[in-house]
Amino acid sequence: MSKVKLNTVTMVVTLLLLAETCAQISKKKSTSSKPVRAQCCDDVRALKVQVANMTSLLEELSRKQDTDLKNVARQIMELDKQSQQQDARVTEAESKYSEINNRVEIMQLQTVQSAPKTSSEALYDCASLYNKNYRISGEYKLPKDEFLGVPELSVFCDMKTNGGGWTLIQRRKIGIVSFNRDWKQYKNGFGSVRGDFWLGNDHIFRLARQPSVLRIELEDWEGETRYAQYGFFTLGNELNSYKLFIANYSGNAGDSLHYHNNTNFSTNNQDNDKCLDHCASLRKGGYWYNCCTDSNLNGVFYRHGEHTKNLDGITWYKWHGSLYSLKRVEMKIRPAGFHS
Ligand SMILES: *[C@@H]1O[C@H](CO)[C@@H](O)[C@H](O)[C@H]1NC(C)=O
Ligand SMILES: *[C@@H]1O[C@H](CO)[C@@H](O)[C@H](O)[C@H]1NC(C)=O
Ligand SMILES: *[C@@H]1O[C@H](CO)[C@@H](O)[C@H](O)[C@H]1NC(C)=O
Ligand SMILES: *[C@@H]1O[C@H](CO)[C@@H](O)[C@H](O)[C@H]1NC(C)=O
Description:
Elements: H1 2-28, H2 34-114, H3 126-131, E1 138-142, E2 153-158, E3 166-172, H4 183-188, E4 190-191, E5 197-198, H5 201-207, E6 212-219, E7 225-235, E8 244-251, H6 279-283, H7 317-320, E9 328-335
Antiparallel strand pairs: 1-2, 2-3, 3-5, 3-9, 4-5, 6-7, 6-9, 7-8
Helix pairs in contact: 1-2
The chain binds 2-acetamido-2-deoxy-beta-D-glucopyranose (4 copies).
């Protein structure tokens, strides 16, 4: 379209120049021969008509281009609307999915609660449930223990992976729950154990007082999965800012937690990192920020297509670098001596 327009402009300019030249010639020759002048003036007139012709053609073309532009703009807006509707549909599907999931898991939970309990057998974590022959992955309610001062706690148990007995401490999969939260929320936990959640630093600290193994499972947007496992995992208490200790890495995701070893926990309102920057604000999560990240598992959940553009996503440097936000994460622990 623009090429046509350009050509037309060139033609018009040429014609104008021709007309100008012709007019000059006719002026010069005005005294000598009349027929030449008359012919020349006719030529000029014809040229002028053609110029007028071209001008109107140009106007028509530019009008057409305007409507074309408007049409394109309308199409873009339409596409935008469609993608928004698609997003809404995805969200709706996700909440339906977790609802169905909930119902299934509530049934499992009821089975557990109707089972007889003896006070001597403390249900301390998913490993002790496993040892009492609960072998279905799902939500379980650990009863409160007044002697230990432990409140009732909903947990999600993975009874399948690598022998089972895992208590989940974190999950990212749906992306609706925000992980940009303050110290108190990270202390007590948030989200739903059947969806996206953080179990809570106090609970994690308590569960990991016995020698524990940490397993981190990751999935990317191509559906590939990797894991990182630490044979030793423990946290400091709140007075020690829930400082992280890990050791004895194994797995195929690469060790992107090593950099966070021996660092305090930080949140958007408590900066305990080893950096001048406020990492929790920059990376928008609560985590054991160093200066700042080699992994950011409590970062921002970005959807497919948006997942490679930001440093504050759910990242694991050794697998996908610092700009790739993962699709799914689970962090889970079990006692070091666990045997299934
Ligand atoms: C363009 O010029 C031709 C004569 O050369 C004429 O017949 C025609 O009507 C003109 N068109 C316009 C749009 O002026
Ligand atoms: C790591 O593993 C080695 C070999 O199994 C073991 O000797 C060591 O105690 C482990 N380290 C920790 C901190 O658990
Ligand atoms: C970690 O926190 C503890 C206590 O909260 C503090 O004494 C220590 O200096 C902190 N370490 C770093 C590296 O900030
Ligand atoms: C973490 O630091 C401790 C020392 O505090 C060390 O023993 C351990 O090997 C470190 N873990 C990793 C994964 O480097």
